[in-house]
Design brief:
By secondary structure, this protein is of the alpha/beta class. It contains 15 helices and 26 strands. The longest helix is centred in the first third of the chain and has 17 residues, at about 40-55.
Length: about 525
């Protein structure tokens, strides 16, 4: 039986909601950052001006526009402006290598890229290999023939934009795949807006909310659960460009009277480890939220002991917009659990035959509801595999207790979660295999107190070959974003395999050996 459909404003979308709020609370602060402020009226105007300029470039409804920026007002303006003219947002990590960027730009068919000069290195070397790519748009720098400044696009000759259907594609979120190539999760306007409403209602977000955004906006969690859930309710978002290991976040919470904050477990651990933690006034922060990786029970308990406030732990995926479950904000929280399904969503535990399992039995988490993606872009086989029998299969293994709280025990796939970021070993292994002299490679995750998991790469060499492990590390750094570079490398004579020749990662996890390469 289907769950009751969540009540969401009919055919609403983020640009439409922003325009409504600009009329009723135009002078209210929408975005605040170190150098400035944008009110709701100013944000709505900037959205319309940029949407007009993008359309004047020849971009039209359905065109993909890549957005590669750190947390900055230009990201927010561009995000809404792309949706406003009917485009599709393709968010990208600014630290992608040329190889990673080329794969996503080519697959998405993005016709434009909005980025900043510090991130130009990757795109400049691959432009010729992207036949559909037309416009390089920069938020800073000098005018050049092959580049467009974002501010030059702003046009006050505002066009009439058609209302998008709630089931139309709004965003392509590319996730690492077990095949080594990222897959584009297709999220509709309804997927995104309904999910933001779920989080808004659960966390009781109000117009007085002051949300701190330090988690990267190119990740779906920061977009939906924090930026959008705050702005659709008329609250204020404070933008920090990126996370740093100093006390910047603690200082910002204190000085800006932050009420709502999202961080992966590693962020909470770094904050708790600060020698000055007890000196900060964090009394305004009533809604700390954690996701992206399992929250250690010790971290939950330490935060509650020091602040008197319990961290709300949630679970989700790019394919689910992302929120699926949460420990109730005002209800019973069970440390070590990812909580229960949000109202209106179905989250169950299935066996390999897609039959629901009783409490206590381990199976795969499956999800059904308004949050589930439309499918994978240009990948019908992967869509069919993930969306079997109308349920999205997450690949995460878990059990539910008698009250419906879910506890993750393992991952069906080999995904490694480092600091809240998913890393699929196959992609890393393929890069290692390209290094001269490598016979075989296997990457696993190992426990790490700060990051949750770190990567350990086992390698075997071709006969008679010797390699410099530091040279291998540097090769990986050139081909992979920094967090995908293994922290440890170990050389074995041969990797353990089963009778069919498959490398046995279970055996590798049992190996106790000293790291031969040293940390990054």
């Amino acid at each position: 039986m289907l769950a009751k459909e969540i009540k969401v404003e009919q055919n609403i979308n983020f640009p439409k909601r922003l325009l409504e709020l600009a009329k009723v609370q135009g002078e209210k602060e929408a975005l605040v950052w170190l150098q400035g402020v944008l009110t709701y009226a100013e944000l709505a105007k900037a959205m319309d001006f940029l949407a007009t300029g993008l359309q004047n470039l020849g971009l039209k409804k359905g065109d993909r526009v890549a957005l590669q920026l750190l947390n900055a007002p230009e990201f927010v303006i561009s995000f809404y402006a792309i949706l406003r003219f009917g485009g599709v947002v393709v968010p990208l990590n600014p630290l992608y290598t040329a190889r990673e960027l080329e794969i996503i730009m080519a697959d998405s068919g993005a016709k434009a890229l909005i980025t900043a000069t510090p991130h130009l290195g990757a795109i400049e070397g691959i432009r010729a290999s992207l036949p559909e790519f037309r416009h390089l748009i920069l938020t800073d720098g000098e005018r050049q023939p092959d580049r467009i400044l974002l501010t030059d696009l702003y046009s006050d000759g505002i066009l009439v934009f058609p209302e998008p259907d709630e089931n139309e594609l709004a965003e392509l979120i590319f996730t690492s795949g077990t095949t080594g190539r990222p897959k584009g999760a297709m999220l509709s306007h309804k997927n995104l807006y309904s999910n933001a409403c779920l989080v808004r209602d659960e966390m009781q977000i109000s117009q007085e909310e002051r949300t701190l955004l330090v988690a990267p906006l190119f990740h779906i969690a920061a977009q939906t659960a924090f930026l959008n859930s705050t702005l659709i309710q008329g609250g204020t978002c404070y933008l920090l460009e990126r996370w740093t290991k100093d006390d910047t976040v603690l200082q910002t919470i204190q000085n800006q009277k932050i009420t709502y904050f999202f961080g992966v477990p590693a962020m909470y651990q770094f904050m708790l480890a600060s020698p000055s933690f007890d000196n900060y006034d964090l009394s305004s922060l009533r809604k700390p939220f954690s996701g992206g990786a399992p929250l250690p029970v010790e971290t939950f308990n330490n935060w509650r002991e020091k602040t008197g406030v319990e961290i709300v732990e949630g679970y989700g995926l790019s394919e689910t917009s992302p929120a699926c479950t949460r420990n109730p904000y005002l209800g019973t929280k069970k440390p070590g659990s990812i909580g229960k399904a949000y109202p209106g969503l179905e989250v169950k535990i299935f066996d390999d035959q897609d039959c629901e399992l009783p409490p206590g039995q381990v199976g795969e988490i499956v999800v059904r509801g308004s949050n589930v993606m439309m499918g994978y872009w240009n990948n019908p086989d992967a869509t069919a595999e993930a969306m079997r029998n109308q349920w999205f299969h997450t690949g995460d293994m878990a059990y539910a207790d008698d009250e419906g709280y879910i506890f993750i025990v393992d991952r069906k796939k080999d995904v490694i979660i480092r600091g809240g970021t998913n890393i699929y070993p196959r992609e890393v292994e393929e890069v290692i295999y390209r290094f001269p002299g490598i016979l075989e490679a296997a990457v696993i995750g190992i426990p790490d107190q700060a990051m949750g998991e770190e990567m350990l790469a086992f390698i075997a060499l071709k006969n008679g070959v010797k390699i410099n492990l530091e040279e291998l590390r540097e090769f990986c750094k050139q081909e992979l974003i920094y967090y995908k570079v293994p922290k440890h490398f170990v050389i074995l004579e041969q990797l353990p395999r089963n009778a069919s020749g498959k490398i046995l990662k279970t055996k590798l996890r049992e190996i106790k050996t000293m790291d031969q390469s040293g940390p990054n």
